[in-house]
Design goal:
four-stranded antiparallel beta sheet; 12 strands; five-stranded parallel beta sheet; homodimer; DNA-binding
DNA sequence: ACCCGATTTCAGAAATTCGTAATGCCGCCG
DNA sequence: CGGCGGCATTACGAATTTCTGAAATCGGGT
């Protein structure tokens, strides 16, 4: 399921947008301000952000820069006037698209789809991830720690590679089940737990105090570079 | 410093693309038409060309053919929205990638990086592979171990040569079926297994504990130098 | 048509991994 | 500080995957 984060300080606007996106089959997250948005991006792992330029506190432009600086998360901006739109998309910010207010929610939903499709084909899957002493190579499917090869099983590697491909993002056990195992078995969460433990015993120097594979209490796990 | 030539007749598009590339640390050249582009390619020695399909005078396809005919210069094509034919033609002409309009400049910058990286490490196919005591010669199609010739069958050689041409990379049985045998996605993966065993019995000193032809459990096989 | 090696198919054995459950532990909250 | 719920850890049987040897089929050459 694709998750979209909607950031706008006006509850009415959020509500309309969210309702339309849900009708189109998206999961949604909502934030009224920058800090909340940042938190949701790190923990909720949205695939796209719809972002109002005008926000109280940290404004939309700053938030967009922050998003841009931390990875490949696509952004659609909501702008007040058409004149600045070109700059927003093309230059300073690197937003992937924009919609000028007032807009029809229908149009926004279409843009969301377009941008996601584009982002999917634009994402060049990284084939060799390096985090200090830890190296994960997708082509040869082997993992090195301090230059020494580690023996991971297929599932262990898939799990590690998925988490490491999305550093710092938190995934629930259900999400991991779906992304790594391929099916959504909402009931069986223990399997994920055991695999994370096994992974830790191999890639962590001290499995009791993990450096890379962090537990986020009550939520799930994440990989920290 | 890496130089990229941007060819598009619309100044605004050029400008946006150029600024983005510069921000990403590239040098840039600009051309609005084919003849100018040719001149800049010969005099400015760019490492990559971003090329709009639609150009006044000499069109993008012709220019791409010309570039392709004169060397190894990578090309990324800009194509109109949704024109499947253009994509195919572009790639058949030897373009290394394409981006459909409208695109986000960020997406283009990502592609530029990807294509350059790919081009940098693209090595011409070797005729003669040497891994210590093991020598695989593509021309004569024979294999030596410790200086002694081995008698491999046709399929055995094809399989070994394919794996040895991509050292350390893991291939599933399906992939091997497609790459070595030629037919796609046959359900019969057992054939691959048997051939790997036979190869081992010939090129490995101890087939029980292979040194070169490793099994990657749950995934496939790989060749290790 | 026949022969012979190469290739594919097949079934049972062997090896490895995966999922589950049971138990103990730790962090969070009142 | 004590209870509770989520997490860590262990162990083991089931399920998957690979190996092996032999039999069946294919295909080129004579």
């Amino acid at each position: 399921m694709t998750t979209v984060l909607v950031v706008d300080d006006e509850p009415i606007v959020r509500d309309v947008v969210v309702r339309y996106l849900k009708r189109d089959g998206f999961d949604t997250l909502e934030a009224a301000d920058g800090p909340t948005a940042q938190k949701l991006i790190e923990e909720g792992a949205p695939e796209l952000v719809v972002l109002d330029v005008m926000l109280p506190g940290m404004d939309g432009l700053a938030l967009c820069r922050w998003i841009r600086s931390r990875g490949e998360l696509p952004v659609i901006m909501l702008t007040a006037r058409g004149e600045e739109a070109d700059r927003i998309v093309g230059l300073e910010l690197g937003a992937d698209d924009y919609v000028t207010k007032p807009f029809s929610p229908r149009e926004l939903a279409v843009r969301v789809r377009t941008v996601l499709r584009r982002a999917a084909q634009a994402a060049p899957p990284e084939e060799r991830l390096v985090f200090g002493a830890l190296v994960v190579d997708a082509r040869s499917r082997d993992v090195e720690l301090d230059g020494r090869p580690l023996q991971l099983t297929a599932k262990e590697f898939d799990l590690l590679f998925f988490l490491a491909s999305n550093p710092r993002r938190v995934f629930s056990r259900d999400q991991l089940m779906e992304s790594v195992w391929g099916y959504a078995a909402a009931l069986d969460t223990g399997t994920v737990t055991v695999h994370v433990q096994r992974l830790r015993s191999k890639i962590e120097r001290d499995a009791r105090r993990p450096r890379h594979l962090e537990t986020v209490w009550g939520v799930g796990y994440r990989f920290v570079p």
